[in-house]
Design goal:
globular, 3-stranded antiparallel β-sheet, alpha+beta, 23% strand
Length: 96
């Protein structure tokens, strides 16, 4: 990850409709898109190395271009085990 680039993290949840979102939340519609999926497993402290590999090595050598300026980390209830070892987080990158 580039320390000179400002990032923002948001927690999200899929909803059926935007009509009943509480005022303290922000609603954003994300269009269906083709995504690359990388699954990370390992210590939480090392996930940055995976992002570095994806964005500095894998993606530039691939035929894909990022479609959006965000990625999605998809966790399930059992994603993080004891000792902060990640059992599986899907990193989704919208591409064209």
């Amino acid at each position: 990850m580039n320390p000179n680039i400002k990032t923002t993290e948001m927690l999200t949840v899929k909803v059926a409709t935007l009509d009943r979102i509480p005022y303290i939340f922000v609603a954003k519609k994300v269009d269906r898109s083709k995504c690359l999926k990388f699954t990370y497993k390992g210590p939480l402290a090392d996930i940055e190395m995976t992002y570095n590999y994806i964005f500095q090595t894998w993606l530039p050598k691939s035929k894909y271009k990022m479609k959006e300026c965000f990625t999605v980390e998809k966790y399930d209830v059992k994603s993080i085990g004891k000792d902060k070892i990640i059992e599986g987080i899907d990193i989704l990158i919208p591409v064209e």
